[in-house]
Design a protein that fits this description.
The chain is globular. It is 47% helix and 17% strand. The protein starts with a helix and ends with a strand. With 354 residues, it is an alpha+beta fold. Strand 3 and strand 4 form a beta hairpin. The strands form 3 sheets. A 5-stranded mixed β-sheet has the order 3-4-2-1-11, covered by helices on one side. It has 2 domains: 110 residues, NADH Oxidase, CATH 3.40.109.10; 207 residues, 3-Layer(aba) Sandwich (NADH Oxidase), CATH 3.40.109. The chain contains 14 helices and 11 strands. The protein binds flavin mononucleotide. Flavin mononucleotide (FMN) binds next to helix 2 and strand 9. Flavin mononucleotide binds next to helix 2 and strand 9.
Length: 354
C-alpha cells in the first residue's frame, strides 16, 4: 500500500502545472492512503474565471501531472473527479495502485514545462507530431476534441482574434486594475509571493516594459486609449501569437467536469510539445470573456460585448466548430527557451480532515 509520504512526493513532483496568472489555486489532503485535491477558485481572476472554469482547467493539468508522476513511483493513479459533486471544494480524489507498468514517457517533461510567450519560428511539424497532439483529447475524454491549423491566413485571423483580450482588458477600468494587480514586477517580489504573472515571462521589449509601468495608472491608460494604445498593443501581440507552427483549440461540453478534462488534455499536449523540444502557449481570455458575457454581460461596454461575440465566432468559423464550448486556444512552435519561468509554491498539505 502507498505511504502518505510517497503520496506527498508524487504531489511535489507534479506541482509544476499551469494556472491562470500562476495562481496555483490548490491545496492537498492526504489521509487513509489517498489524496484529495482541494480547489480555491477565489485565488483566480474573478471576472475571467467564469463558473470557476479557469480553476478547473488548472486542476485538470495538475491531476494529469499526478497521473503521470504516479508511474514514476510504481503506481497507477485511480482518479475520481468531483468525487462528492461539483462545488464541494474537492476537485479530485486519487487512490494509488501498485503497477508493473513503466514510467510514463511524459514524466521528465513535467519539470521542464513552461509558458513561452515569444514569437515562434514557422517550423513545419511532422505528421507524427501532429497526430500525437490530436490524440490527446481521446486519451482523456472522447467527447472532447482538439482542432489544429497550420494555415497562415487562419493563424493571422486567430492571432488577431485572441488579441482582442488585450483591447478589452486595457480599455475597461475594472479589468485593467485586475490585470495589473496580477503582475509581479521583480524577481525579488516573485520569490516572496511565489505566484502571479512575473513581468519577464511576458517577453516584452524594453520600451514595452517601460510603457507598462506607466499604463498601470488608469489615469494614464485612459488618455493613452484615446490615441488607440490598447488596440496598438493588441495588434503587436497578434503578430506574436500568429508566429507559431500550429494553433489549435480544445472543444468540450458545457459541464464543469469537462473543464477539468480540458486541463488534463492541455497538460498532455503541453508535455508532448515539451518532449519534442517545442514551445507552448495557452491563451484563454476571449473564450472566457465570451462565456461571461453570454451569461451576464454586466460590467462590459456594448462595444466590447459585440467585439467579444464577433471574435469568438471568428475562432469558431476557422475551426468549423458546430457544437461545444471552446475551452482555450494554444500555439506550438520552435523557439529555444522562454526568457524567464514562473516560480511554484511548495504544495500545502492540510493535515487534519476538516
Ligand atoms: C486556465 C488558464 C488560463 C490561462 N490563460 C492564459 C492566457 O490567456 N494567456 C497567457 O499568456 N497565459 C495563460 N495561461 C498560462 C498561465 O499564465 C501560466 O500557466 C502561469 O503564469 C504559470 O506559468 P507556467 O505555465 O510557465 O508554469 C493560462 C493558464 C491556465 C491554467
Amino acid at each position: 500500500m502507498i505511504s502518505n509520504q510517497e503520496i506527498e512526493e508524487i504531489v511535489t513532483a507534479s506541482i509544476n502545472a499551469p494556472s491562470g496568472s500562476n495562481s496555483q489555486p490548490w491545496k492537498f489532503r492526504v489521509f487513509n492512503n489517498q489524496l484529495e485535491i482541494l480547489g480555491f477558485p477565489e485565488k483566480d481572476h474573478p471576472i475571467l474565471n467564469f463558473r470557476n472554469r479557469g480553476t478547473w482547467i488548472a486542476h485538470g493539468a495538475l491531476i494529469e501531472n499526478i497521473n503521470i508522476a504516479a508511474t514514476a513511483f510504481g503506481y497507477e493513479a485511480q482518479i475520481q473527479v468531483f468525487p462528492n459533486g461539483e462545488n464541494t471544494g474537492i476537485t479530485g480524489r486519487i487512490n494509488f495502485k501498485k503497477t508493473e507498468k513503466p514510467k510514463d514517457e511524459l514524466f521528465d517533461s513535467i519539470l521542464l514545462r513552461a509558458t513561452n510567450r515569444k514569437p515562434y519560428k514557422d517550423k513545419i511539424l511532422t505528421v507524427k507530431q501532429k497526430r500525437e497532439f490530436l490524440i490527446s483529447a481521446q486519451e482523456i475524454n472522447p467527447n472532447c476534441d482538439i482542432r489544429i491549423t497550420e494555415d497562415k491566413l487562419a493563424k493571422n485571423i486567430l492571432g488577431s482574434a485572441v488579441s482582442v483580450n488585450e483591447v478589452v482588458m486595457l480599455e475597461n477600468e475594472k479589468l485593467h486594475q485586475l490585470f495589473f494587480d496580477e503582475i509581479v514586477w521583480t524577481k525579488e517580489e516573485e520569490s516572496k509571493k511565489q505566484k502571479g504573472l512575473y513581468l519577464k515571462t511576458m517577453e516584452l521589449g524594453f520600451p514595452q516594459r517601460t510603457a507598462l509601468r506607466l499604463f498601470k495608472h488608469w489615469s494614464i491608460m485612459k488618455i493613452a486609449n484615446k490615441f488607440g494604445v490598447a488596440k496598438k498593443i493588441a495588434n503587436d501581440n497578434a503578430k506574436t501569437y500568429s508566429a507559431s507552427s500550429i494553433m489549435g483549440i480544445i472543444i468540450v461540453d458545457d459541464t464543469d467536469k469537462d473543464f477539468i478534462d480540458a486541463g488534463r488534455i492541455i497538460e498532455r499536449l503541453w508535455l508532448k510539445a515539451t518532449n519534442e523540444k517545442l514551445e507552448f502557449h495557452l491563451i484563454t481570455g476571449v473564450m472566457f470573456f465570451y462565456q461571461r458575457v453570454m451569461s451576464d454581460p454586466k460590467g462590459f461596454s456594448p462595444v466590447h460585448i459585440e467585439l467579444i461575440k464577433k471574435t469568438y465566432n471568428q475562432i469558431k468559423e476557422v475551426f468549423k466548430v458546430e457544437k461545444g464550448v471552446i475551452a482555450g486556444l494554444f500555439r506550438i512552435g520552435e523557439d529555444g527557451k522562454p526568457t524567464a519561468r514562473s516560480i511554484k509554491s511548495p504544495p500545502e498539505f492540510i493535515k487534519k480532515y476538516v
